[in-house]
Amino acid sequence: MKWDDNTRFLVVFFVTLVVAFSVIAWNPVNDQVIVPFTKSITWVSGALLNLIGQDVTVTNTVIYSRHFAVDIKNGCNGVEAMLLVLSAIVAFPATMRSRMIGIIGGSLAVQTLNFVRIVSLFLLGRYYPKVFQLFHTGVWQILIILAGVGVFLFWSLRFAQPRRLETNP
Amino acid sequence: MPSHVDSRRILKGVVGFFVGLGVWIALSSSYNPLVAGAAEALLRLSENPSVTRLRPEESEIIVDRDDFPPRSARPGVPLQDLTFNVILLIALFASSRETFSTRNVVGFGLACGILYVTHVFGLIAAVKSIYAVKLGAWSEAAYGPISRNVWSGASHFYRLVGLYAFAFAIWWVLRPEGIRLARRASKRKGRKK
User: Fold this and answer.
1) Which site among A19, A135, A149, A168 would you substitute to test the B interface, given the most B Cβ atoms closer than 10 Å to its Cβ?
2) What is the DSSP secondary structure assignment for residue A63, as one 8-state letter?
3) Which residues contact B148 (CB under 8 A, 6 or more apart)?
4) Stretch 61-120 of chain A: residues touching chain B, C-beta under 8 Å
5) How far is CA A12 from the centre of its chain?
6) C-alpha neighbours within 13 Å on the C-beta side of residue A43
7) Model's pTM, two decimal places?
8) Could you report the per-residue pLDDT of A20-53, keeping only the tens digit for each?
9) How far apart are CA B45 and CA B131, in angstroms?
10) Nearest by CB to A146, which of B3, B17, B182?
């Protein structure tokens, strides 16, 4: 990427991010797409917690047991990290096919890690409530985004169209 | 261009993450007044009469106005929720191939300055969002539908994606590889002229 490409990358990155975020923040999309998606994440996380013997119940976006409860809200469903990966991939010079590989692979990686986040936060909230807030904000949010950035960098080296690449990001 | 996963850089990123976490925890209480002071000055510049006061209190910034009824509760903004992207920035710069090279250190210093500006604007958006949508009838009387949507949208965007996007974008531009590219490109342009 040349400097001009860098500027173009930033402009396309932010425009894509703002547009994609506006779409998911629009109430009909939020209610018809994001909330059902979050419910499915909640359901899978609840199943994982039951698998390790936590005896939890899932209702809508809430996982609760006799000891602790978490409500999966926007910002905790991994969608925002997926948008960042999507925006970076769209902004990077690559073929449509490699972009699709990156977006699908990146989303799967982010969501897999997000299940680990939800399960671990539930366990921390139950057994170590004092550190719950620190892990909820400072640790896991950043780890999810770092994972997203890592996926993007890996993709840009391995799958993005090599003809246009002149450097190692 | 290497196409393999660079495990040393990943390790440096992990170390950077823990350093960043420590820095954020240790320095937040000293850093918050700096953000609040600049945001308050800018908010008061845009007001006539100037009424906003931002008071750092533990991990929150208490939003006060001279025209608030004296006994009413003051809203607060949890500033740490707006500034923890510094951990991301530190981890990204730490993952550089030459972490302590002059280029990387200078780039990181510049990045911190720019990130501070984004924190100030993040806090301004949060305060304006409180004014625009969270103060009931007063909000409706003082802010029109467009400005209500703009301020609440800006605050929402910053909190959910903007703070990560800014840290990533600042690193992307100021990382040593980016600066090297800029110099190469400007040399190329100079030669063409």
Assistant:
1) A149
2) E
3) B132, B133, B139
4) 74-75, 80-81, 83-84, 87-88
5) 20
6) 7
7) 0.89
8) 999 999 999 999 999 999 999 999 999 999 999 9
9) 16
10) B17
